[in-house]
Design goal:
Layout (H helix, E strand, L loop, with lengths): L2 H7 L24 E5 L8 H10 L4 E4 L3 E2 L8 E2 L5 H14 L2 E5 L8 H13 L4 E4 L5 H11 L2 E5 L15 H8 L6 E6 H6 L4 H7 L4 E6 L1 E2 L8 E2 L8 H10 L5 E4 L9 H17 L1
Parallel strand pairs: 1-2, 1-12, 2-5, 5-6, 6-7, 7-8, 8-9, 9-12
Antiparallel strand pairs: 3-4, 10-11
């Protein structure tokens, strides 16, 4: 397939693709936010099914992750940055059919060698993604170079604090800030607010520490403030979701928000729909 024909094929319901990453279109917003699903929420299913379930839940955008099954018919194929042009075209066609825009990819390890890292950025460019999510601090120099070249945002993701592994520092927003503060403004945080709660932190305080550096978010509400807490629909748990959304608005946040629902894995669409509905209602109130 020629580059010209590839470009023609790679269009979505939410807007026409360009050669470089572009802002997420306004018609992909719900309640003022580009909210949809992290495909990890549907990791028991294929990427094609994840697209379907995102649409069923009312999301308009999706964040992919590496290694998901490609389809029911081809479960041995894996969806990641090694995907063939034919696989990418098939995913794009299904996205268009369901009215979903792909906006992000991760959490993915970005290698420190340029050839390996470039493969991930090329994949993101073909999909016209807004951003890439990673925890590869050791690759920050090559990330900086490729962010400038490809005009694609990179967010450093936080997992929970690991009491038995003090070398893991990504849970701490001050550490993330130290990594990104002197870098290109398109490099910042993928704010996983649920993991901040699991780490004993206040998500709003964390967002304030990273002011202006929030590239995207994994938005979660949890049933309790413990490491083993599980996801619940927004507004029913311990996280102050309205305060988090208010702070993101205050910071003029324009990245994507992913519902990463890691509970009730085979029947999570109703709860995810409640989460998206909460944000929709928040936007109406404002």
């Amino acid at each position: 397939m020629s580059m010209k024909n590839t470009f023609v094929c790679f269009t979505l319901a939410c807007g026409l693709f360009t050669a470089a990453a572009t802002p997420i279109p306004d018609d992909c917003l719900t309640g003022g936010f580009a909210i949809g699903c992290q495909a990890w929420s549907f990791n028991r299913y294929s990427v094609m099914e994840a697209i379907d379930k995102t649409a069923e839940a009312g999301g308009k955008v999706i964040e992919f992750y590496p290694g998901q099954k490609f389809s029911v018919d081809q479960p041995d194929l894996k969806w990641d940055h090694n995907a063939t042009d034919e696989m990418i075209a098939a995913v794009q066609a299904h996205l268009k059919e369901r009215g979903i825009r792909a906006v992000n990819y991760g959490v993915v390890a970005i290698p420190p060698d340029e050839a390996g890292a470039r493969k991930i950025f090329e994949f993101a460019k073909k999909l016209n993604l807004y951003g890439i999510t990673t925890e590869s601090v050791g690759s920050i120099d090559i990330i900086q170079k490729l962010v400038k070249e490809y005009d694609i945002h990179v967010g450093f993701h936080d997992h929970p604090r690991q009491p038995n592994n003090p070398s893991y520092k990504m849970w701490d927003p001050n550490y993330v800030l130290s990594v990104v503060k002197d870098r290109d403004p398109r490099i910042g945080s993928c704010a996983d607010v649920g993991h901040w709660v699991r780490s004993g932190l206040n998500p709003v305080d964390c967002l304030k520490i990273l002011h202006g550096r929030i590239m995207n978010s994994h938005l979660k509400d949890l049933n309790e403030k413990k490491l083993e807490a599980h996801d619940v629909p927004y507004g029913t748990g311990v996280s102050d979701i309205p305060a988090i959304l208010k702070e993101l608005k205050k910071q003029k946040f324009v990245g994507n928000v992913s519902v990463e629902y890691e509970y009730d894995w085979t029947n999570s669409v109703p709860e995810i729909a409640q989460c998206i509905g909460f944000v929709r209602g928040y936007g109406v109130k404002k």
